[in-house]
Amino acid sequence: MKNILFYLAVIMTITSSSVRSESIKTSHNTLGETFVFSGADSNQPLTVNLWLPETSEKQSLPLLVVLDGQRYFNYAVSMHHLMQDYGWTPPFGILGIDTSKDRWPMLSNQRQVILEKLGTQVFPHLKSKYALSEERILFGWEAAGGFTINTIVDKPQLFSGYIAASPSPLYGEYFPMLQQSFESLLTAIATNGKGKHLYVSKGSYDYPQYLGIDALESALDTITLEKPRYTFVSIDDATHASLGFETLMRGVRDYFYYFDKPQFNSFEAFTAAGGHQFLDEYFKQQAKQFGLNQQQIDKNRFELLRKLSFMPLMDGDLGLFQSYMAQLSDTDFLERSHVNHIYRYALFMLQNNDLSGASNLLQYSQKREPDYALPINGLGLVAKVRGQNEAAKALFQQAVEMAETNNDYRLYEYRKNLEELE
């Protein structure tokens, strides 16, 4: 009997395991396609990985070309997803170039061979298969960063943008022997740089790369001829090893600068940039470069103005807030603003004893959206501060009744305000 029970238990275990296995499906996980372009003579084959986004866009896609693809390709794809979620850039393809075998010699000694192969084999082949444009951005870190910058000398027609993280080696105090190549680079930038983009970064304790980076920035600043739009940044919280990841995202966003909205961390920065006049020129460029329609531009402008509107609130600066709102009085800013944001503006004014301003905002909000209890509750708060308790009580009661009907999540707040007056 014990043997029978034992065998039944084994059968049930096997059956149960089989059922569980059958309910789980597995498949291989792949990212894009891999192409291997054979080398000539003693040159090693060039391995590249291509990933293209699924998009409804009809125009051809720009291509981000990532050196050291064995490190940055997967990251670039994840970065692309994030950028699309937040509307930072248009969709673009990603090409990772594998440099894992003999990296430094490959990047240093075979630059012209690699660029020639890209121009004559890789890009033509990919364009024959996929909807890719002639717009390409090259990214590289460290030795690949030096490769990236010197591409302006070797093959300026291949790329429209260059993102270099801690590029090495560059002429400077540490590499004085590179002065001749440095002068050739400056000549190439002045000759071929019009309409292009250059983004260069350095990190904390980024020795000796920062010496050459500083020398390059100083030299570019003195060039009076037409030159690329360039940005040099110091990412002080990034180490040399992590700098590539930081730079790739920031550099791509900077390349597509006019696609998104300008970023300001303070009202002072907005004013220093030129304020509303700056925005006029910015969104003019946005429409020109990316073909955005007026509806999209108006949306982008409003979202930026809304972000700026909260800065005086966070700083507790009533005067700045009043001045800012006065500048927007002839626009549709309030018309586009959500009732919750108007209520927050009114509370800020109320807390800073601008009762008239708070009341005007709340009356506007109530008239625009009469079914919302929030502005009515706000008017009750204004009446309470003015000592008009009966009027406040009636307004709080009205807000409670309306909130009960509409299942308003602020009902508890309205009831509490009412109870404090009873």
Describe the structure.
- The structure is a single chain.
- This protein has helices spanning 2-22, 69-85, 103-109, 111-129, 143-154, 179-192, 209-222, 243-255, 267-273, 275-290, 294-315, 318-327, 333-336, 339-351, 355-368, 374-385, 389-406, 411-419, and strands at residues 33-37, 46-51, 61-67, 93-97, 132-141, 161-165, 197-203, 229-235.
- It starts with a helix and ends with a helix.
- α6 links the parallel β6 and β7 (197-203).
- The chain is an alpha/beta fold.
- The chain contains 18 helices and 8 strands.
- The mean pLDDT is 90.
- It has an 8-stranded mixed sheet with strand order 1-2-4-3-5-6-7-8, with helices on both faces.
- α14 packs parallel to α16 (374-385).
- Helices cover 57% and strands 12% of the residues.
